[in-house]
Amino acid sequence: MAPEQKKRARPAPKASQRSKKRQKIEVQPEPKSDVKKLKVAVDALPWNEAQLPDMFDDAEGFFGLEEVEGVEVIRDGNVVQFVTANAQSAKEEDEEFEGFGDDEITPENGNEPEAAGTESSKTTKEKKAKKDKKKKPAKAEKSTDEDTEDLKVNVFKALEDGGDEGADVSAWADVDLSSSLMSALSKLGFARPTPIQLEAIPEILSGHDVVGKASTGSGKTLAFGIPVVEKWLETYGELEEEELRETRPPTALILSPTRELAHQLSEHLKALCSGLTNAPFVAAVTGGLSVQKQQRQLARADIIVGTPGRLWEVMSSSIELTASFKEIKFLVIDEADRLLTEGHFKEAEEIINALDRQQDAEEGAEENLPTRQTLVFSATFHKGLQQKLTGKGKQGLKDGTDSMEYLLKKLNFREEKPKFVDVNPVSQMADRLKEGLVECAGTEKDLYLYSLLMYHPNQRTLIFTNSIHSVRRLLPFLQNLNIPAQALHSQMAQKARMRSIERFSSPKNTGSVLVATDVAARGLDIGGVQLVLHYHLPRTADMYVHRSGRTARAEASGSSILLCAPEEVVGMRRLVAKVHAQNAISGGGNKSKYYMRSLDIDRKVVARLKPRVTLAKKIADSALAKEKKGHDDDWVRNAAEELGVDYDSEEFEAAGGGRKGRGTGRKLKEKESRALTKSELGALRAELKSLLSQRVNVGVSERYLTSGTVDINELLKGAHGEFLGKVDGIGMDDQ
Ligand SMILES: Nc1ncnc2c1ncn2[C@@H]1O[C@H](COP(=O)(O)OP(=O)(O)OP(=O)(O)O)[C@@H](O)[C@H]1O
Q: Which controlled-vocabulary keywords does the entry list (predicted)?
């Protein structure tokens, strides 16, 4: 699409409109006479997320509270109208209102012509260095999505801290990128392409549909992100500031299976774009955050990253959006094997249907092939999917009985055979990942979990469980033991989810622990995760690969340890056989690679940790049971109300409302926990505190385990013996 098509004027943001200051709706004094007023509907006002004090951390009802500034409220009898100061004429009201918020795209960086494509990266770098002295580097989206500000993790933060030297990017020469992108990569410090980038980018740039497979943490995001940005630069990179403010169809739609991953992908692309003079506007569209705000951002987005559910919700409510989406140049499916799984594909399918429907209507179904390129990426593709993706997908689709065939057909590749780029045909696991397992009884997993954390103190650790209930249970348990744990699961409010990730990934919290369900298993790129602990055996081998892939990313190394109960042994064997099958076949060539091995953990030491674990569990259970009792009481009260009887009456109990006679062992335990009085709890806490303050002897030679939060080096200063926490865990290095 040529830039001059489909343009729609957009009001220029005023400096005052970008003010960071927030205020509640209030009646403004008479506006100055030279400012024209604009009446707008309440939904079209420039709402911003209200900033709440930390004490509201988990008050779910408050998340999503929005406020607006610079709005005049006019009351005429019962009619309330909202008027904004705006230099545009009022007739544009219906067309578009971008608002005043601090989330305007600011083409402050957009009025200097792009360096010529033939210019060497060095010259471009010099030019840009001069420019950067005059003003801060472009951060087109820096202030556009405050909801995701807190999700900035890993390398992206470095950009904000300066780092204007830049890397020598001559190793990218074979990929044949524009000088602008070379310069942006230099600023990111990415000196050379990763293997998947080296292989996939040229294929995408030459117009192919691509299916890309590479191990976790190997740079797949930029493997599709760089060509998408390159395409945008090719089309719009030379636009003047004024032209850049005009809306245009988006260049790419990127689908992600989880909200966190969507925000991370968008941050990753923004980080790349922040090194550009003219940059595309990247927007993330996910559930859990304000729809109106996301709709406003979507209207001007060049690259849209979203979860299918929310994306479909906003698309289906706007014919205009759907119409502009049909012009995308790229449809990207990240973590494709998950998104193409039955049960998850429904909304993605709706989106693709909508894109293709438009296509058909306009182009008379010329072969029914889209003009967009489809890019499909993951670290894992189960065998059937892989075969079908690599070319057989378009055959045998007549009856649509095979659902996977059906889904692939739906992707509607424009080529009969997409290019299949597999840079890790042998192993899906990262090279620098060490794997081990610890065998223990199912009932002792809490004890062993804590022991493992003690053996690896001050390491950023991600614990995966198979259920939300387990996350809820383990969180207070670990916190009682002074482990700085955060939780992440899908039933948490989105703000709380992001806050957990932010705290977990904060450079200040190197020894932080995140207890999560598989919602955190895919794609999350959090720097410095050294250890992944599988509290439960993952449900699939692929999930094991993704979970373990949260560590040992890019150039880093890391460990993955599975807690394995006797009833999980069969499943674990199957898992190892699957994950390392190819390695085993390839045999001697890969001698240095070891597989999951049973790790030695001194049971005597574990036994010494038992008293504190028992206490911590008791205290945590008591809190959980009380919380549960609150819910139960609500239920009972509501049921009594429905029956029209007193909550405490015998009549109500007789009617079954009191749920008598359903006491099981678990219920009894809960009851016992609830029965703990305040002073009993206080005594338990005091006992635990005293235990936690003691070192744990780990053997004959004055060796001790310490609480994970204690600085091992400090302790060592006064001791001759060794602390297990100081050495490299439990023998992972010897293997
Ligand atoms: N060329 C490069 N040089 C150095 N680091 C890079 C390069 N490309 C990407 N990275 C960094 O590597 C890390 C992992 O990248 P990314 O998140 O894209 O991995 P992935 O392959 O998508 O992993 P997963 O399968 O877990 O989603 C990121 O921190 C990213 O910034």
A: ATP-binding, Helicase, Hydrolase, Nucleotide-binding, Nucleus, RNA-binding, rRNA processing
**CATH number belonging to the domain at 433-585+592-601, selected among 3.30.43.10, 3.40.50.300, 3.20.20.240, 3.40.1360.10:** 3.40.50.300
Whole-complex ipTM: 0.99
Domain 175-358+369-389+402-422 sits in CATH at 3.40.50.300
3-state SS of 88-135 is CCHHHCCCCCCCCCCCCCCHHHCCCCCCCCCCCHHHHHHHHHHHHHHC
Cβ–Cβ < 8 Å for 275, 239: no
Q: Is the CB of 553 under 6 A from ligand 1?
A: yes
**Ligand 1 atom 2: residue of nearest CA:** 190
Helices (H) and strands (E) counted in the chain, each on its own, are: 26, 21
**What is the distance, to the nearest Å, from the Cα of residue 201 to the centroid of all Cα atoms in its chain?**
24
Instruction: Say how far apart CA 231 and CA 332 lie, in whole Å.
Output: 14
Confidence of residue 432 (pLDDT cuts 50, 70, 90): confident
Task: Name the residue among 537, 455, 544 with its Cα closest to residue 725.
Answer: 455
Distance 167 CA to ligand 1 centre (A): 17
The CB of 332 under 6 Å from ligand 1? The reply is no
Closest residue by Cα to atom 22, ligand 1, is: 220
**Residues 331, 235: Cα–Cα separation, whole Å:** 17
Q: How far is the CA of 219 from the centre of ligand 1 (A)?
A: 3
